[in-house]
Each structure stands twice: as structure tokens, then as C-alpha cells.
Amino acid sequence: MPEPSSDYHVVVFGAGGVGKSSLVLRFVRGTFREAYVPTVEDTYRQVISCDKSVCTLQITDTTGSHQFPAMQRLAISRGHAFLLVYAVTSRQSLEELRPIYEVIAQIKGDVSAVPMMLVANKCDETAREVAAGEGETQARAWRCAFTETSAKMDYNVSEAFQELLTLEKRRHMSLQVDGKKGTKDSRRSLKEHVRRRCLLM
Ligand code: GDP
Ligand code: MG
Question: How far apart are CA 155 and CA 157, in angstroms?
Fold first, then answer.
């Protein structure tokens, strides 16, 4: 189990090219780029509401499923919650998540206590190899949540992060720092708040 700390660590895993960085950048900055820029390992910080106070959400965007084993194990040990991302255009990318899931299960022990979500990205694409039902079946087998997203179209992205946080039963966390419902307006005020906080960090 990770050290108890006020930071909450979310780790994003998945094969190269499935859209991990795009999901994180869409969520954190609201941007999208068509070009593929391979990631080494990046961490983003965002202030969120946590147990009636605020804490820092740390999102680690990994290099992919073939991350160096030592880095992968370290990210898993530190991680409180995980997004396992594949692209609906690649069956192979879903298959590549299995060994990662197995290492998470091995390191964490009881996976039912670990917030985890299987994320089917690029759902805007018409050239599908994986139907939504297949993703759901896999998620049930792994006892984790499931969602389809499009970083490109900004579909279900902040919802995926929000749902992941609600799966954490040891803390009460929300992306809304002011405790209001997730309206567009409060999301905007949150982003402004975060931007201001980031300048201070
Ligand atoms: P990563 O290797 O998993 O971090 O993947 P990237 O985020 O770098 O994205 C890889 C490629 O897929 C880039 O060219 C992105 O523009 C594209 N991409 C990412 N998300 C989506 C999406 O939701 N839909 C579509 N159509 N393309 C996407
Ligand atoms: Mg990347």
C-alpha cells in the first residue's frame, strides 16, 4: 500500500498510441493534439476537493505497457488508483493490458479495494476492433469500472477521472473544489483555481 499522504496518485497505463497522454492533457489542460509524441513519464498535478479540504491529485502518464519493469513497479506501488487504457481500434492494445493488470494485482493484493477503471479510448473512430460489450466483459472479469472515451471529441474524459475518484472509499474526493455540482461553470472555476494554484507550485 502506498504511504498515507495528502497527495492522491492516479497512474495511467496502456500500450503506446492508445491516447493516454491525450486523455491526461484533455483533462488537465483541455487541449488535444493530432501528432503522436511518445511519452517518457510525466506527472501532472491538480488541486481537488478531499474530505472537506483540498488535496493534490497527481496523475502519472506512463510510457506504455512496455515501461521499464522497475519504473512500472514503482508507479504501481505509489499509485492509489489506475486507469487502464486501450483503443477501440486495436484489440492488441486491450490484450497488452493483461500483464499490467496482473502486476497491479500482484503488488496490491486485493484489487477490489483499488479504484481501477478500464478505459476504451478513441470511441469516435469508426474502424473498431473491440465492441463496447467486450470491454465491459473484461472489466467485469477484472472487477473494475468501465467507460468509453474520446480524448479527441472531449467525450467522457473528466467523467472518467471523476468516477475513478468516487471509487475510492477511504477518502471522499471530488473534482469540484467548491463542493458544487459539476456544471460547466463550476468546472471552469475549478480550472481557473487550478491554474492559479499551479503558478504557486
Ligand atoms: P499514448 O502513447 O497512449 O500517450 O497516445 P497519445 O495520447 O500520444 O495519442 C496517440 C495518437 O492517437 C495521437 O496521434 C492522438 O492524436 C491520437 N488520439 C488520442 N486520443 C484519441 C481519440 O480519442 N480519438 C482519436 N481519433 N485519436 C486519438
Ligand atoms: Mg503518451
Answer: 6
Give residue 67's pLDDT band: very low, low, confident or very high (50, 70, 90): low
Ramachandran category for residue 17: left, alpha or beta (phi over 0 → left; psi -120 to 50 → alpha): left
- The answer for residues whose C-beta is within 8 angstroms of residue 161's C-beta and 6 or more apart is 10, 27, 83, 175
Q: What is the DSSP letter of 112?
A: G
* Ligand found nearest the CA of 122: 1
Atom of ligand 1 nearest to the CA of 16: 2
DSSP state letter for 169: S
Q: How far apart are CA 70 and CA 74, in angstroms?
A: 6
pLDDT digits (tens, 9 = 90+) for 159-200: 999 999 999 998 899 887 754 444 444 444 444 444 443 333
Mutate to test the pocket of ligand 1, among 22, 83, 124 (most ligand atoms within 8 A of CB): 22
The torsion region of residue 131 among left (phi > 0), alpha (psi -120 to 50) and beta comes to: beta
Stretch (H or E) spanning 120: strand 116-121
Neighbours of ion ligand 2 (CB under 5 A): 20-21, 39
Q: What is the pLDDT of residues 99-117, one digit of tens each?
A: 999 999 999 998 989 999 9
Structural contact between residues 120 and 149, judged by C-beta atoms closer than 8 angstroms: yes
C-alpha 71/C-alpha 88 separation (Å) is 27
